[in-house]
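$ fold --in a.seq
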Amino acid sequence: MRQIEQEHYDVIVIGGGQAGLAISYLLKQEKINHIVLERSQIANSWVNQRWDSFTLNTPNWMNLLPGMVLDPKEDREAFKTKEQYIDTLVRYAKEHHLPVVEQCEVTAVHSYKEYYGVEVRYKGTSKTLSANQVVVASGQMSDFKNPLFAYSIPSHITQINVAEYKNPTQVRGNVLIVGSGQSGVQIAEELAQTNYTDKGQLYLATSEVMRSPRRYRGKDMMEWLYLMGVMDMRMDELEDVNISRQTQPQVSGVGAYGHTVSLQSLHKMGVTPIGKLVTSMEEGFTFSDEVKQHIAFADKGSEQLKLRVDYYLEQKNQLHLFPQDEIDEADCPNVNFSAAGTRTALSFSAIDTVIWAMGYQASFSYLHIPHVLNEKGFPIHTNGVSPQPGLYYLGFPWLIKRKSGIIFGVAEDAQTIKELVCKYRNNAG
């Protein structure tokens, strides 16, 4: 494991996930003196914040970092397991001798006239490093918290955050999963297919989340989005900025080539989709009565994606080359809303386990620099560049383009940030 060998660096990178490793590789190619500070271990979020059966939601060809090529032995359209991708990142750091220091937590970053001061907790002691430039590559999925309600949830109910969920042995009895994004529907599917302890009712509290068919007309939908240029859309090209805030669509990478997962497919497995969790009352949870709208929203999103592909192929006069021969039952619209549960309340006595699958968040409170965070505590930036000279961000959703928030966008964004680092360095030197 790499050690801290000096106190000053040209660049300090915060975070040892795919974004931090990508920028480190490029900085090393430029022979720029830098260090990557990782609070836990390489690929920490993949190691500690994903469940055991987790697979990537993007096929192998979309998961290449700078300097990587697809192994000829790998199926370009298959999906890596969590363990396989962790191994990929660890080997990447080792093979390229990237200067990653693990178990080194950044506790504060200060800006001075000509450099940044970076305070860290390393080997049980506090230490202060300095750098000319800083790249925050810790992403926006490094922390989590459970919601607070007016009435506390009784102690007999086991509460598990999605980042803490590992496998069905953690749950028992009647289970409420809160959140119908990728994590929520994938965990619901796993529990539906498992005979866990005292298995009972499975409830899924839903919200407006799009669904994507896994495959359409012979290709993974992610490949169609790439070919149509959707993945390269920039924030300033969006007609509605709310698109950038949408939850990742319901879909799964489990199986040889992944599969479609929908509220109706879950219902057929024994899951009861209900409305959005509103709050807790004295006797239990209350939910909206919008589950039918949520089913319709997901169905409409999937149909719109397929129509977009059809239009793209029609414009190229290639629709006949990509027939849709297979029927994807999980993607068939639930026109009669047979999957919709009717409950708008659940008593605490009716629930044994709650899984909070409401997404991740990140804290940037260690950035002790005026005017770099907004009122919600998130970084202010334009295409990854802070208004504070020499400070950059990497690995955020919609950082520069739509693909920025997934592995597929990291290499291109890292190249952009690397060029800015070099330009700043040359101008300063």
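$ fold --in b.seq
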Amino acid sequence: MLNELLCNRILGIDKAVIQVSQGRNAKEAAATIRANLIDLLSLLDRNPGLDAAADDLQKSVHAIVEAGDRGGVEDRQMRLLTEAHARYKDRLEAAGVELIPEKSGGPGVRLRKA
């Protein structure tokens, strides 16, 4: 059950990050990212590295949404989003969440026991 919840939150974040990067419904996608990050962090043991990575991801998403409202997103902002998303994934794995590729197209998730 926990693995399914984690998987749903992680997939929701990943899909919403793609939406933001493509400029599709960026404000809605940003709200989805925020809600899923809050849920995800509540499901896992507190981890300062994961907290910081989630905060960086949220800030980079917010910067892109704001830039889109002003008329244009810079390449640097997209690069920062990509890097923040990669750091968040790395921190998830360091926190004991194993991302497992599945044949259905999305990652499966397994929580490693400490």
